[in-house]
Design brief:
By secondary structure, this protein is of the alpha/beta class. The protein has one domain: Acetylglutamate kinase-like (Carbamate kinase, 3-Layer(aba) Sandwich). 42% of the residues lie in helices and 18% in strands. It has 10 helices and 11 strands.
Length: 252
């Protein structure tokens, strides 16, 4: 009886300062490339894994979707003559490669992770179902969901919104290389001003390019708030989860 109470107290202490119990974290494929000339910068993967482990050690349940743009994009393939469906399938496979890299790194540093895929891909990963994903989240696994939605013509932002809704996440954390949403591209416009908060309607009316419209609408309709922040700065993920104001929060 005492042991059970002690476990509850320790869990409460770990999570009492956080806003969220379960998150969906979207990672950019391009960010995984970092400054490396190869497709994957393993220093960046190691940094991401360390930050994710630190967040998981706080008691946060973490689902992850990773893009594949560092390896292949279906849209760019189509512009070069590829069949769009085949190109998107290649892009989905690219997300699996990135997801395997992160899964392996997490396991290597002592944080158990499990890979799920949108389409059956045994023995690479387990076929995704909501129940299995949530079951593993509750067991303490970092759940990585690869392969997009499993269908062409959908981005990994849409896959992230879909998986976030399915796993009943409290928030969709969009990790990028910029520290939030701006009035203009801050890498091109020195006068760009960052928003601290936005509503979905404001972001839509201002035509801010946060994510594709399908993903955006899915989050809005399901009241899944989106927080855009700089994932490339070590420690930012934990800061966000500790209620330190970073990035831009988009809510209903």
């Amino acid at each position: 009886m005492f042991n059970g109470f002690l476990i509850f107290v320790l869990f409460f202490q770990k999570t009492k300062n956080t806003m969220f119990k379960r998150i969906l974290l979207k990672l950019s494929g391009e960010s995984l490339q970092g400054n490396s000339e190869s497709t994957i910068d393993f220093e960046r993967v190691n940094q991401y894994a360390a930050d994710i482990k630190a967040a998981a050690d706080m008691g946060i349940e973490i689902g992850i979707v990773i893009g594949g743009g560092n390896i292949f994009r279906g849209v760019s393939g189509a512009s070069k003559g590829f069949d769009r469906v085949k190109g998107d399938q290649m892009g989905m496979l690219a997300t699996v490669i990135n997801s395997l890299a992160l899964e392996s790194t997490l396991n290597a540093i002592g944080k158990k992770a499990k890979l799920f895929t949108a389409t059956p891909m045994s023995p690479i990963g387990q076929h995704f179902t909501k129940d299995k994903a949530i079951e593993n989240l509750k067991k303490g696994y970092v759940v990585i969901i690869a392969g997009g939605t499993g269908n062409p013509y959908f981005t990994t932002d849409t896959a992230s919104a879909l998986r976030g809704v399915e796993i009943e996440a409290d928030v969709f954390l969009k990790g990028t290389r910029v520290d939030g949403v701006y009035t203009a591209d801050p890498e091109k416009d020195k006068n760009a001003v960052k928003y601290e908060t936005l509503t979905f309607n404001e972001a839509y009316n201002k035509n801010l390019k946060i994510m594709d419209l399908t993903a955006f609408t899915m989050c809005q309709e399901n009241k899944l708030s989106v927080l855009v922040f700089d994932m490339n700065e070590p420690g930012n993920l934990v800061k966000v989860l500790n209620n330190i104001k970073l990035g831009t929060l988009i809510t209903v």
